[in-house]
Design a protein that fits this description.
The chain is α/β, with parallel strands linked by helices. The chain folds into two domains: about 20-35 and about 280-385, no CATH class; about 50-255, Spore Coat Polysaccharide Biosynthesis Protein SpsA, Chain A (Alpha-Beta Complex). The protein is built from 15 helices and eight strands. The chain has helices spanning about 1-35, 65-70, 95-100, 115-125, 150-155, 175-195, 215-220, 230-240, 260-275, 280-290, 295-300, 310-325, 330-350, 355-360, 365-375; strands at about 50-60, 80-90, 105-110, 135, 145, 160-170, 210, 245-255. An eight-stranded mixed β-sheet has the order 3-2-1-4-7-6-8-5, with helices on both faces. Strand 2 (about 80-90), helix 3 and strand 3 form a beta-alpha-beta unit. The radius of gyration is 22 Å and the shape is globular. The N and C termini lie far apart (about 65 Å).
Length: about 400
């Protein structure tokens, strides 16, 4: 009798796990499939040149800020129509002196507990509302392609209030950097290009973003997030029916993590933000029922998805276990789900990553899975304090 009860419990647990992993796999498979189709952004009906504030908040980013700032001044966009604003939090005096010698505006900020949202709000409180039309948000390590501002300007001429550029890796010098770069491109395929092909809003990343300036300033005043502020403003915009555009050809180069300890810190921050914003699902579902706002519901659903690296670790494991202990029908289900996950990655990963370097990096995945599990058990409270990711690479490699 006891054995029968145990078998029933294990059967129920298996189906709960299978259902949850199937939900996550099917979701990303659908949008990875959509990403195979080319997305054509709207064509501008006018040629206005907007005034752009390129805002670069940085916390102790002395190693990368000078080159990133100098690079931002090289845009193929009329120099009288854009200004680079460095929001300097805890920079060295010599770094501040060098920044002030450049043709940029430096806003120094001081907080007992630093966050990106605090830095942006403080800077915008000191800037006149009528000086800029667009706010472009970068990280201190980001380098824009020379035509980035031109592409952003053209897209705003089509009527969008919020735009996400294509963030791409600028370094691939370690196995973890390669895995991080691949992960970024998978996100671009599934949550940005795939979503726009399907008519839904692009996901935001946290940098390489652009917003109508006054709209962004007002929105940021409502932000309470310590980490993951981009998720908070994304959810709030989508609730209000603001569509987020994605520009696949507007490139921003971003440093990928090189070391495992940085990998853990970064994933811990992301997981904490995802868990925190999962609470929006109830409101998103209610809004969908009353206003048919599927964009908002879709974003809330994303907060419930299992992390991809756990799918990579758990589906092969459960498929193998099923071969050993399950009836054939359950093994077919597990194997089918694993095959679907493999197809998802084949669809979502750009062809340029099909090389020996990526193959070598794949050998680091088991370690990455282990580190992700560590992150899962250390996320408590991570969204209540600022977790800084150190940057060291300023140039493209």
């Amino acid at each position: 009798m006891a054995m029968n009860s145990l078998a029933v419990i294990l059967f129920i647990i298996q189906w709960i796990i299978l259902a949850y992993l199937a939900f996550g796999t099917l979701y990303i498979f659908v949008f990875a499939s959509a990403s195979l189709f080319h997305y054509y952004p709207r064509k501008a009906g006018k040629e206005d040149l907007h005034r752009i504030a390129v805002m670069i908040p940085g916390y102790k980013e002395d190693a990368v800020i000078l080159e990133a700032t100098g690079d931002a001044l090289q845009q193929h966009y009329p120099e009288e129509n854009y200004e680079v604003i460095v929001i300097a939090d805890s920079f060295q005096p010599k770094t501040l002196e060098k920044l002030k010698a450049l043709s940029v505006q430096v806003v120094e900020v001081f907080f007992e507990h630093s966050t990106k949202s605090k830095a942006l709000n403080k800077a915008m409180s000191q800037l006149p509302d009528d000086r800029y039309d667009i706010a472009v948000i970068l990280d201190a390590d980001n380098l824009m392609a020379l035509d980035f501002l031109t592409r952003v300007n053209n897209s705003f001429n089509t009527g969008f209030k919020a735009i996400q550029g294509h963030r791409i890796a600028k370094n691939a010098d370690t196995s973890f950097a390669v895995l991080d770069a691949v992960s970024e491109e998978i996100n671009n395929s599934i949550f940005r290009r795939g979503h726009r092909v399907a008519g839904l809003s692009s996901s935001l990343i946290g940098s390489g973003m652009a917003f109508e300036y006054r709209f962004f300033k007002t929105l940021m005043l409502t932000v309470q997030a310590v980490g993951g502020f981009d998720k908070e403003i994304e959810l709030k915009m989508l609730k209000e029916g603001v569509k987020i555009e994605y520009l696949d050809e507007a490139l921003v180069y971003d440093e990928k993590v090189k070391r495992e300890e940085v990998f853990v810190k970064q994933r811990r921050r992301w997981l904490s933000a995802q868990i925190h914003y999962a609470s929006y699902f109830r409101d998103a579902f209610r809004t969908f029922l009353t206003k048919r706002n599927f964009d908002y519901l879709d974003k809330a659903i994303q907060m419930l998805l299992p992390p991809r690296i756990l799918l990579i670790g758990l589906l092969p494991l459960f498929t193998l276990l099923s071969v050993l202990v399950n009836p054939v029908i359950y093994t077919i289900l597990w194997a089918g789900l694993l095959a679907l996950l493999i197809l998802t990655f084949l669809f979502a990963i750009p062809r340029k990553f099909y090389n020996t370097q990526t193959l070598i990096a794949v050998l680091s995945i088991p370690k990455g899975i282990f580190l992700m599990l560590i992150s899962l058990f250390t996320t408590k409270g991570a969204n209540k304090k600022f977790i800084h990711t150190e940057h060291t690479t300023s140039t493209r490699t």
